[in-house]
Amino acid sequence: MPAKKPVGKPRTKQPKKVKFITTEIRCQEMSKGGLAYEVILAEPVGVPVPRRADSPEKTPSVEEIQEKLKAAEERRRSLEASRMAAIAQKMAKIEEASRIRSEQTNNFIVATKEALDAKMDSHEEKREAYINELRARLKDHLEGVEKTRLTLEQQTAEVYKAIEDKMNTAADKRDENIKKMLERLREHEEQVRKVRAGNQERFQQLESAIQDKLQQAAGRRLQLEAEQREKLRSYNNKLAEVRSVITNKMEEITKDIEVKLSTAEQNREKEIQKKLDFVKKEERRAELVRQNKSARAESEAPTSG
User: Which residue windows are coiled coil (predicted)?
Assistant: First the structure.
């Protein structure tokens, strides 16, 4: 029958896993003419790894410790100097800011005072100009009244003169004309009295109006002065608050610096104490080593003899 082809992948023979067992071979001479070998199957003997000899611990000397302490002290001093320089720089900045703030405050106060004085002077000049203008108007009005009075007196004199002339020329009609003229003079005097009363009343009204305006100007001036004083008071209060805040911050920074310096001093003292304890401990250990060496040398001395 024809051979069937294998279906799928051909199987390949896998090599068997071989366990390698370490062996120990010993050789022993059994006779004069040959050698006999003995094969022993056993576990491999582990070769111990040679240990590295411990290096003797180096004990720092007192001079090295003092040099280290000196270097640490120098580093601490340099650190403290740098901190104090930084603090001094901060304080200088704070003082400079305070000085600038004080200069700005003084400049603001001076400028405000100058502006207020200028405003007051301008208001005073305007008030004086207004009063002078009112006085000039009143003077012009009085001059007009005086001119009217003089004109009326002149007219009256002319009327009297005309009456005398008419009395001289017309003796018959003298009484009637005199009566008429006296009536006209009475009416004229009444009109002059009314005009004077009206002028007097207008003068009083103008005087009262001037007084009212002067009182109002004085009130406005007092109000402006009060407002400016209130502004200056509020600004001074704000300035006092800012100064108190800066003072509190400076006190907090100073306290923080003092706490840090005290903590650093305590840590330095602890470190120095640790190093001194270590030095004392090493000195005691060296003393014990010397005592042991001397005791060993004393115990070995008789045996060697």
Answer: 62-89, 113-198
Neighbours of 176 (CB within 10 A): 10
Cβ-count burial 247-278 (b if 16+ within 10 Å, e if not): eeeeeeeeeeeeeeeeeeeeeeeeeeeebeee
Tokens found for residue 81: 């100097």
Please tell me the distance from the alpha carbon of residue 209 to that of residue 186, in angstroms, as a whole number: 34
Among residues 146, 126, 127, the alpha carbon closest in space to that of 138 is found at 146
Query: 297: how many CB neighbours lie within 10 A of its CB?
Result: 9
Total residue length of the chain: 305
Q: Report d(CA 243, CA 99) in Å as an integer.
A: 11
CA 103-108-113 angle, to 5 degrees, is 125
Secondary structure (3-state) at 290: helix
Distance CA 215, CA 81 (A): 69
Give the tokens for residue 210: 């001037």
- Tell me if 126 sits within 8 A of 216, measured CB to CB: no
CA–CA gap between residue 136 and residue 144 (Å, rounded): 12
CA-CA-CA-CA torsion for 61, 64, 68, 70, nearest 10 degrees?
A: 110
Which 8-state DSSP code applies to residue 11?
Answer: P
CA 278 to chain centre: 50
The enclosing H or E element of 4 equals: none
User: What is the 3-state composition of the chain as percent helix, strand, coil, each rounded to the nearest 5?
Assistant: 80, 5, 20
What does the pLDDT look like over 97-134, one tens digit per residue?
988 988 998 899 999 888 888 888 888 888 888 888 88
Whole-model pTM over 0.85: no
